[in-house]
Design goal:
Helix content: 25-40%
Low-confidence stretches: none
Number of helices: 13
Number of domains: 2
Oligomer: single chain
Largest sheet: 7 strands, mixed
Number of strands: 17
Keywords: Amino-acid biosynthesis, Aminotransferase, Arginine biosynthesis, Cytoplasm, Pyridoxal phosphate, Transferase
Order of helices and strands: EEEHHHEHEHHEHEEEHEEEHHHEEHEEEH
Strand order of the largest sheet: 4-12-11-10-7-5-6
Shape: globular
Catalytic activity: N(2)-acetyl-L-ornithine + 2-oxoglutarate = N-acetyl-L-glutamate 5-semialdehyde + L-glutamate
Pathway: Amino-acid biosynthesis; L-arginine biosynthesis; N(2)-acetyl-L-ornithine from L-glutamate: step 4/4
CATH superfamily of the largest domain: Type I PLP-dependent aspartate aminotransferase-like (Major domain)
Protein name: Acetylornithine aminotransferase
Structural class: alpha/beta
Radius of gyration: 21 Å
Pfam families: Aminotran_3
Bound molecules: pyridoxal-5'-phosphate
Length: about 400
Amino acid sequence: MIPPVLPTYNRAPLAFVKGAGSWLETGDGRRYLDLGAGIAVNALGHAAPELVAALTEQAQKLWHVSNVYTIPEQERLAAALVDRTFADTVFFTNSGTETAELAIKMARKFHHENGQPERIEFIAFEGAFHGRSTGAIAAAGSEKMVKGYGPLMPGFRQLPWGDAAAIREAITDRTCAVILEPIQGEGGIRPFPPALLKEIRALCDQTGTLLIFDEVQCGMGRTGRLFAHELSGVTPDIMMVAKGIGGGFPLGAVLATEHAAKAMSAGTHGSTYGGNPLACAVGLRVTEIVSEPAFLADVARKGAILRQGLESLVARHPETFTGVRGEGLMLGLHCTRAPADVVSAGYREGILTVAAADNVLRLLPALNIPDEDITEALSRLDKVAESLKAAA
Ligand SMILES: Cc1ncc(COP(=O)(O)O)c(C=O)c1O
C-alpha cells in the first residue's frame, strides 16, 4: 500500500527532533555529527542563534503580503546581493529548481526581445543537476531523471563534462545560453577548471551567448569565497542561488546583469511566496554573515584542515578511499565502493555524510563547524573505514 508520504525518496530510518550547530539528535537521544548540513543548506548549522533571532523578530511583525506590494525586506536583501556580486538585479524564489526555471526563461526571453527568437539552444553538461522541474531535468538530461517524463522541453544539449573541444564546437551565434555548475555537486564534487571557464566566457562573449552559473550548491560561502566563480575570476550573466542563502529557510535567488535581465518587464515572471518577508529577513542575515571576509577566510581555513585530514584518511584506507576533491567546505572523498555503503556505515558511527555520483562521498558541513567537530568527524570517518574493512 502506498504510504501517506509519496515514496519518491530512499530515506534512511533516522528521524531527528532537534539540532544545534553541527549536531542532530533523534527522539531517543542518539546524537549525530552532521557533515551534510541538509545538503549544503544549513550554512550556519542547526538552530543558529542569529537566524533564530532574525526569523522570530520578523515572524512577530509580518509573514506575507504578496509581490503586489513593495517588500522592504526583499529590497534590502537584493541590495546586499547586488553590492557583493557582479549582478545588477535579483528575483527571489523558494528553491533552486525555480531558479533554473527563471534562468531558462530569462535567457530565452533575452534573445527573443533581441530579435533572435530562434536562439533557443542551451548547452549543459553531463553530470549536472539543476533541479526536478521539467525544464531543469531537460537541462541536466540524465536518463535517471528524465525517464518516463517525455516529451522533454526541446532545445537542451549535454556535452561531456569539461570537454574543451566539444565546447568550442558547440557554442555558436545560434546558442541561447550555457548553463553549468562551477563545481558540480550531485555530479560528484567536480570543479570546472578555471581556464576552461575563462574560455567559455570568451566564447559566450564572441557569440552573444548568455552564461548561466548554477551556484545553488557551491555558492554562499561554501568554497571560502562568497561565490565559487570568484575562484576563477569569471563572472556569469545570470546566476542561480538557493540552499545556503536561507540557512534552512526555503529561499532562492536569480541574480543577473542589467543586460541579461533587460527583457524581464512587469508581468513576465512571478511567484506567490518568492521573496516573502520571513525568507528575506533570514536571507539578509545569512548574507551579511557569510560575506564577511573574516568568515570566508575561516571557511577556507576549516576547509584546509578537513581536506588535510581526508588526505590522511585516503593514505590510511586506500581500500575504501582513493582521493579528495573540491574547494573549501565542499569536499568529496572518492570511494572504491558505492558511497551509499559508506553513508550507511556512517550512520552506525554517528556521522552524517551524503552520497554523490561518480563514487563520491560528499562532505558539506556547516560553514561555521567548530574545529573540534572537524577532528571528531575525521575520527568517526576513520572508524567508518575500519568497520568497512572488518566487514569485507
Ligand atoms: C546545483 C543545484 N542546482 C539546483 C538544485 C535544485 O535545488 P532545489 O532542490 O532547492 O530545488 C540543486 C539541489 O540539489 C543543486 O545542487
